[in-house]
Amino acid sequence: MSLTRLNATAATLTKNRTEGSVSPFSGMCVTCVDGCIGMCEIGKSAYRGHEVIYPQPFGIITTAAEKDYPVDYSHFNILGTAVGAVGIEADSNKAIFPNVDLETSIGTKNKMKFKLPFIIPGLGSTNIAKNNWPGIAIGSAISGTALTIGENVVGMDVESEFDNKKIIKAPDLEWRIKLFREWQQEDYGDIILQANVEDTKLGVQEFGLSKLGVTTVELKWGQGAKDIGGEVKIKDLEKAQLLYKRGYVVLPNPTDPKIIEAFKKGAFKEFERHSRIGMVTRDGFLKRVEELRKLGAKRIFLKTGAYRPADLARAIKFASEAEIDLLTIDGAGGGTGMSPWRMMNEWGVPCVEIHSLSYEYACRLDKKGKFVPDLAFAGGFTFEDQIYKGLALGAPFVKLIGMARAPLAAAMVGKTIGKKIDEEQVPVYIERFGVTKHEIFVTAPELEEKYGDKFNNIPTGAIGVYTYYHRLAQGMRQLMCGSRKFALKHLTRDDITTITKEANEISKITYIMDVDRDEVDKILES
What we know:
By secondary structure, the protein is an alpha/beta fold. The chain has 3 domains: 3-53, no CATH class; 62-229 and 276-526, Aldolase class I (TIM Barrel); 231-274, no CATH class. The protein is 39% helix and 13% strand. It is built from 21 helices and 17 strands. The strands form 5 sheets. It has an 8-stranded parallel β-barrel, surrounded by 7 helices. It has a 3-stranded antiparallel β-sheet with strand order 10-12-11, covered by helices on one side. Helix 3 runs parallel beside helix 5 (171-183), helix 3 (133-143) packs across helix 19 and helix 14 (384-393) crosses helix 19 (460-482).
């Protein structure tokens, strides 16, 4: 059901009074009664107005679209075979799934290695990101993967210091980088510093490159969750005023005496901090890439969102001309710390469509002999089957799958379990596995053997991320073994099939009834 028909959702803490009888085209209760207190979204908007635009409660949730798109990755199936092996000797004693190689690398002159083909595309200034950063950062590092510091981290840090509107001290940013670096495995992965319009004005990437040992930076055009800049809620008046003075768009104006009085009286309890939208040009993009290279950036990425196809073409073409190291393409419906709820559901190009277009555009450049940057697909990926399909759909250009909500969920669960262990209040659902982290986390013995006494310094949130990635890795190896593909570089679009005509039309991946027709004829007619 399209979300445009809905008038109530857990995301905005609303519900219909007549839940069993709802108008299919408006989402309103079939009988809207005079005297109702307004539990639905219309009703709540009647007294909280613009606050109901956003998912709630802010700071302790992540959100993703509730819309049921006509086509998604479930419309594809993975193909297996009983014949041969690619990337390993066709020997039943050697072609076993633990021998599948999941390592990959991206980039041009300065390659970045990955033990697993996962990257977290950007966790920025939201409370949910900061509160779980130890788990996310350390978990990514010990897994041999990469993590992106998202937008507005420096601007939101009340302890940041500026000189002539340029950053000279950024404790929060420094802490985030340091956590990853302390646990980074050899040369695997990296901590990536992203920048939006405000970050660029403040000189965040320049500061990171010159003062904090950053080697990889990312330019941000947008994301799949929204087509405006980032936003957060601010409960503290002084912080809202500070951000306003730093140049952010803060609503309502926290320096207006009437607004201050209303806030103190409790008329509203949160300010909104918004980021500005960027204005992309070819020359501006190429100039910025060159500036960053001169500043010492070893690798430069670009992340773009679910904008119209012409913008996707611009992203791929500009990335090609600049010969950047990675282009991340995020489809509509993906997750976020906070985005306007209806926008998240009703704007942009969905994942299968934008990923299929990305492959098409990359092929067009490749056929002309043009440079094609390594690609990462993002947008609602959570498990190994979807990861496999995304890598296959975009092969050979797609090297990584971007995920944020899923590893963040693993970090949050791991962190919560750790707290319950410390409080000696392990829930019954988990207690059946034990009451210590050595008993509960299945990867604990492996990590303890590797890190020794240092294992005790790994937060349970990080163990949660590592263990989740461990599950994805084994699942991927099993699927790839079944396809007889024993390294990621051997995956092709022929390793998946479409099971609906709509998916076939969009992706040009072969429909299941047409797979192997020529080979079948040879077999049967021989």
